[in-house]
Amino acid sequence: MREVEAKVSTTAPAETAPATTMGPVQTRIGVDVGGTFTDLVALVDGQLSTTKVPSTADDQSIGMLDALRASGVDLGSGVSLAHGMTVATNALLERRGARAALVTTEGFRDLLEICRQDRPSMYDLTEDRPPPLVPRELRFSVRERMGPDGVVEALDEESLASVVSALQEADVEAVAVCLLFSFLHPEHERRVGEALRRALPQVHVSLSSEVLAEFREFERCSTVAADAYLAPRLSSYLLGLAQLLAEAGIPAPFVMQSSGGVTEIEGAVARPAACILSGPAGGVIGAAYTAKESGYDNLLTFDMGGTSTDVAPVVGGRVQITTESIVAGIPIKFPMVDVHTVSAGGGSIAWVDEGGALRVGPRSAGANPGPASYGRGGSEPTVTDADLLLGYLSGDAVLGGEVVLRAELAEQALASLASKLQMTALELAHGIVEVADAEMVRALRVISVERGLHPREFVLVAYGGAGPLHACSLAEELRMETVLVPRACGVLSALGLTVSDLRRDYVRPFFAALPLAAPARAEAAFAEMEACAGRELQEPALERLADVRYRGQSFELTVPADDLHALADEFHLVHERRYGFRMEGEGIELVNVRLVATLGVRRPRLHEPAPAVQLPERHRSANFAGDWVDVDVLDRERLGVGSRVVGPAIVEFREATCLVRSGWGGSVDESGSLVLRRQ
Asked: Which of 383, 520, 532, 568 has the smallest C-beta neighbourhood within 10 Å, fewest atoms?
């Protein structure tokens, strides 16, 4: 194991699973693996400490162990460890999952390619979909047919035997099974699964009736195919990590799900596609937690890391959840935090397209070699190099304990590309920042304006290593008045892991018109899910939800369902807020009933001590719109509650840097967040 110097500071699982409780703990640790750095936050008896080390792309568990050892935290008894990772995300993005097969009802072999018979871009005839996760030669079908009322054609045992024989010769690692109407009548699908598991004991088998018991065959098929595609890689990683931690005397971690709650390793292995947005979900939970401590509950979260930027809305203190996510071109219908991701991070590479226009991303320099200024062999200019040349970052800054930024290397990389555009390196640096900012503003509009939310009524919570650098500029573009920069902004996703609830999600198909003619049937469906939750968790908090739509619509909105008689009124309100209108006279349909079961954790109150030193210790020249300005450089560790900041200024946090632009100012509040407002 290599030594690392680090920055340190103070879907229902099987019904037979044993009941689980979070239990009393003295130390909560969250470790989030990003594309560039691995972040750790430890809450020890309410005291917060942080650690940041470079990520290890080849094996993320190595970076996790590096962070745990560098933290200096006692990892003995009374420790609860939560983990957010990008293993599943990277496997989808890079198409490095398992060799998977698909078994469907006869006649539906090509469902993954037919999709919805729409185009990814309405007017671009050259843009194609990403290839299916399962190639056509590994897609098989059995003769059978279920309808909404049950068996239409019995399962043909001869065709099943033929499929099993073909799969034995195909040398696959996983098999997804998705038969028509199995979400209502899973009998045929279970028989197929039994035959496959008996004949191929070393092969992972995902059944759509176990993974996602919902209607819409394409989305169900896409989700179960992704589940099978990811299962061998994710289970190998998580089980290997658990063994590695056990050998080091460290308890097995909980794993962050895309829904914003954690689950045990067994739950993550059983439903790998539910962990695709593991890391970003932790950041949104952390942002909602710190913002609530500061008295804000309507937020747009802005997480700019080394590889990408993730944005999400929080409304009324509630993290928004969606079941309509598309990740790497693949529809995934599991509940996920409503995160929108763009390829604009500190390591995003600037380049010139065929038309001579400056572009930024989607390629990233990552952690190795990283931006040119890292001095690890990178030669292409990145957003980080531009921020460094403009003076926003310190030329002697140390990232992750071992990466020292070198301004001369950044300037060389920028000058090389600038010569192609007939401009100076400084002009190119401004251009790179403006292009990256424009991409991030578009992302924020997607999760606000396009969701029926007005940005001016929200607070921008900036975090990630690069988020606070660009926050004021983005807020100005969106006409937002307040920016919140948490004290742990550089490791906020890891902080979110430490305060995330243990969560289970359940769903049952339930087709009915509103108002319900037989509410007792819906009560029975909820009671069944609640009984299952009670067996798996010890006295969980329960939240009833329902997927509702206007008759004739092809999409649903999820609304609270504690009062079944008020479902229609609740749906009208949610629909009007989301789309700007309601249809009072139109019929309303209930499609699914859902249950969220959680075991909460104790969330400590955040307190900021009095300031150590209020005056700036040093100054630095920073370039704004082509002019060099002498700005105050403040050490966040020497600020305290009530410390004032007036722009232009730079506040250097332990794991991030905040650029306070001219016209902005604010102070540190009692919870430790820097609250900036437009003057």
From this structure: 520
Tell me the two tokens of residue 604.
Answer: 């400590």
609's CB contacts (< 8 A; 6+ apart) are 640, 641
**Angle formed by the axes of helices 425-446 and 407-421, nearest 10°:** 90
Q: Is 283 exposed, middle or buried (0-12, 13-18, 19+ CB in 10 A)?
A: buried
Q: Answer yes or no: are the C-beta atoms of 626 and 651 closer than 8 Å.
A: no
C-alpha separations of 178 from 102, 103, 510 in Å: 8, 6, 19
3-state secondary structure of 368: coil
Which residues have a Cβ under 8 Å from the Cβ of 299 and sit 6 or more positions away? 287, 288, 291, 313, 314, 458, 459, 460, 461, 484
Q: Kindly indicate the confidence band of residue 502, based on its pLDDT and cuts at 50, 70 and 90.
A: very high
CA atoms within 13 A on the CB side of 155: 21
Alpha-carbon dihedral angle through residues 3, 408, 350, 460, given to the nearest 10 degrees: 70
**By CB neighbour count within 10 A (0-12 exposed, 13-18 middle, 19+ buried), where does 477 fall?**
middle
CA dist 474 and 262 (Å) reads: 31
- Contact assessment for residue 675 and residue 651, using Cβ atoms and an 8 Å cutoff: no
pLDDT in tens, 658-668: 999 999 999 99
* Per-residue model confidence as pLDDT tens digits over 172-187: 999 999 999 999 999 9
432/310 Cα distance (integer angstroms): 19
624-665 confidence digits (pLDDT tens) = 988 999 999 999 989 999 999 998 999 999 888 999 999 999
Q: Which amino acid is at 550?
A: Y
pTM of the entire structure? 0.88
